[in-house]
UniProtKB/TrEMBL annotation:
InterPro entries: PDZ, PDZ_6, PDZ_sf, PSMD9. SUPFAM superfamilies: PDZ domain-like (SSF50156). Residues 9-46 form a coiled coil. Interacts with PSMC3. Part of a transient complex (modulator) containing PSMD9, PSMC6 and PSMC3 formed during the assembly of the 26S proteasome. Acts as a chaperone during the assembly of the 26S proteasome, specifically of the base subcomplex of the PA700/19S regulatory complex (RC). During the base subcomplex assembly is part of an intermediate PSMD9:PSMC6:PSMC3 module, also known as modulator trimer complex; PSMD9 is released during the further base assembly process. It comes from the Eukaryota. Belongs to the proteasome subunit p27 family. This is 26S proteasome non-ATPase regulatory subunit 9.
Length: 140
């Protein structure tokens, strides 16, 4: 009878609805767990990042620094032979830059929580200096 079929349909739709709710609840739990794991992984990676000792606070467009991909707010962990263990003052940078004019320097920075390597070649250009960026020491 049509009334019996309609009741079966209602019961079946209720089962489908309950199953969908359970499925979405499980999916939501799984997503939350994945987010927690991703966050934990990101935290453990941050702890393994080397310590920065200086920061780029200006990069002139068209300069050697700009062409190398150096960006404002990059935190420097290695600049040629200069690192946290031997850095005393900004004169260390000037010395390395002068000795490396025309030759690529390996620069390692922390950008957005990730370690990034940049090849920077100090050279004469239209602007001031050999790099075209401003570096400030980090106060720790």
């Amino acid at each position: 009878s049509p009334a019996g079929l309609q009741n079966d349909h209602k019961a079946l739709m209720k089962q489908v609805e309950e199953a969908l709710h359970q499925l979405h609840a499980r999916e939501k739990e799984k997503h939350a767990k994945d987010e927690v794991e991703a966050l934990a992984e990101a935290m453990s990676q941050n702890q393994s990042l080397p310590q920065a000792f200086a920061k780029v606070n200006a990069v002139t467009p068209g300069s050697p620094a700009s062409l190398s991909g150096l960006q404002v707010d990059d935190e420097i962990v290695e600049f040629g032979s200069v690192n946290i263990n031997n850095f005393q003052n900004l004169q260390n940078f000037a010395t390395v830059v002068q000795h490396s004019e025309g030759r690529p320097l390996s620069v390692t920075v922390i950008r957005s929580g990730k370690k990034v390597h940049v090849g920077l070649t100090p050279k004469r250009w239209a602007g001031k200096g050999l790099l075209g960026c401003n570096i400030i020491p980090l106060q720790r």
